Structures are given as structure tokens and as C-alpha cells.
Amino acid sequence: MTDTLKYINLAMESWGLLFCLLAVTILLIATHIDRKTKRYFLAIFSFLFLDLLANMGGLLLRGRSDAVGRFFLRFANFNEYFWGDALTLVLTLYLLYLIDRREKKLTRIWHRAAWTIFAAAVALLVITQFTGLFYSVDAGGIYHRGPLFWLSQAIAIGTLVMDIVLIVCYRERLSRAERISFCVYVCVPIVAIFMQLFFYGVYFLLLSSTLAAVFMLGAIILDQTEQYYRTEQELAQMRSALVLSQVQPHFLYNSLTAIAALCEHAPAEAKEATLAFAEYLRTNMNALNAKGTVPFATELKHIETYLYLEQLRFGEDLLVDMDIEVTDFSLPALTIQPLVENAVKWGVCQDEDGGMVKLTTRETPLGVEVTVSDDGVGFDPEHLPQDGKDHLGLQLVRDRLKMVCGAKLTVESKIGQGTVVRVFIPRNLD
What is the pTM assigned to this prediction? Predict the structure, then answer.
């Protein structure tokens, strides 16, 4: 390799290192990007950085005929190939993560294929150290391509082609920005690999891969930022609709009537009930501006206020059982209280003899399960009560739980036996 080519390559690798550092800086200050995406990109740019360093080390060490120089040259060459293979693996795993966001384990076979290709590439790389399969270093410290050098490039191209197949097969699971950015990232290195096959000595691959990764990062950040603000707008609309569906005229009228009945013979209790009613309305109105999650203790207090007001009306016909084992978790505001209200309205109140509403929380290995149950009249789960507002409220609760904290809501009911609603809130979501 001439000195001119050496300095050109070193300059390109230096620019690549600079772009990697710039990308990592952007990642560290980016706010509207999910944790796993951030981790995958940190891995991508870390592997690129290590690959670039290994390539630069190889360039600087070539021509060293002493034993130490040749050892470190072989070490640099090994790392250059290894981190390149690791980079293509991480790219594929990130693509599979984006595809699997909505339905886990959909692409299990593709995961196995990606890891198998990586394992085969590393195994062949190790064999190369003893046979010169991909490359060799002569006594003068000069790097030479091996007889199966093309196979190392074919493995990389094969992985990238697999990524293209994934993009085509699962394009409906990827946003437009994700599809475009991945196509750019996949196609640019393929072109660079072909150029390196015919233009020996000029290393287009690493710099082109770095630039393509920076482009992909920018596109993904813009896309996820847009999704973040769109989700925030949808959640704000959900909060408004849910609050409006909860503050229903019949509940306001019945609560005020019950309080009025207390004013003559139990003024102290009437005062307490009035304050509770005001607290109930205040909490509902505050939910309009609530973002993210609130401590369960806050939601529990609102539930207790609601049940207190309902017991003023129904007396002993409404029994309440609280079995709270865990409270150190968070969830969106006004998500469990509407479920309790449905249990009272559609379960207990529909039974002439009244009934019991039970609220439980328990810890599980994977998260927290909140259960709202009643022993009322029950219903056919496939045909929810035909009251528009209550049906809307249940769907909004389900949507907000899923969007904000990845929680799952299920409903079980049998006519004449009651209803059980379970909410599973996973812990440590990434």
C-alpha cells in the first residue's frame, strides 16, 4: 500500500471516529427516543468505533516485521473483522426489535438465523488465524487477502440481504422513516463492499457504514419524536374524553341528593361528604392535565373517595373489600377508578340484593396485578353494556394503560356470578 493510500484511509477512518462520537453525543442528549433504540444505537456506534480503531491500527502497523508488531497487526485485523460481524448482527437484531414491538416472538426463527450467521462468521475468523482462510500476514508484516476472502464479504452481504427481506416481509410493522433509513443503511455498505472487491487498498466500507448509521439515527430520532408528540396529543384527547365520561349527571345528582339528606340529621357527616365530593371533582379535573403516570396511592385515594360517596347512597347494599398487598407502582390517572365504578354500576347496582366490590393488588415475578371484581349480575364479555359512555370509558382505560405503561387489561364475566377485571402492569419496562 502506498503512503498516499495509507493517509487517505487514515483520514477517512478519522472522520468516521468523529462521526461516531458525534452520534453518541446526540444519543445521550436525545429525550424522545425509547430506551432499547438508544441501547441498540449505542452498540452500533460503539462497534463502529472499535472497528475503525482496529482498521487504523492495522494501517499503522503494516510493514512491521518484528514479532511484536506482527502480533498486534494480527490482533488489529482480527478485531476489524470481528466488530464488523458484530455490527451486522446488532443491526439485524434492532430491525427484529422494531418488527416485534407489537407481537413478541413473531420473528424467533430470524433471530436464530442471525445468531447462526454470526457464529459461523466468528468460527471461520478463528480458523483464519491458523489457515489464512480470509487473510494472512507475511513475515514482513504485510496483509494479504486469503483464498476465501470473498466468503467473508459474502457472509456480510448475506446478512444485509436478509435485512432487506425482513423489511419487505414486515414492512407494515415499520414506519416509513424506519423503512427508508434501514434501506439506506443496508444498501450503502453493500455498494461499499463491492467497491472494495474491485478497488483494493481503499476502505470505503467503514466510513460509508458510519455515515449511513448517522443518517439512520437522525431519521429514527425524528420519527420517534413525531410519534411521541402524536401520542401525547392522543393521550390528552383520551384524558379529556375519560374525564367527561366519568363526571356523569346521574352520579352528581345522586351524590348531592345523598349529601342533602344528611344536612338535617347529620350535619358533621354532611360536611365530610361535601369535602369528599369536592375532592372527587378536583381529582377528576386534575386528570385533564395529568401526563405520564401517578403513584397508585393517589389512584387508591380517589377510589376510596368514590366508594365513600356511593356508600352514602346504597348503604349496606354496597360492600367493599380492599386487599392491597403492594402500592409501590405507578399507572395512568383514572384507570382503576373507572373499573371500580363499572363494578358498582353494572355489577352491584343491577342486583336487587346489592353485593360486594373487591379491589386487590399483588406482586408477581414480572410486575403487579390489580384486580377489580364484583359478585353482581355479570354479563356476556363479548357484549359489553350498551351504554355508550361506559363502553367508551373501558376502551379508553385499556388504550391508556397500554400506551403509557404497556399494561394489559382483561375482562372475565359470567351471567349471574359477577365480573373480574384484571390489569397487569409490567415492571422495569425498557
Answer: 0.59
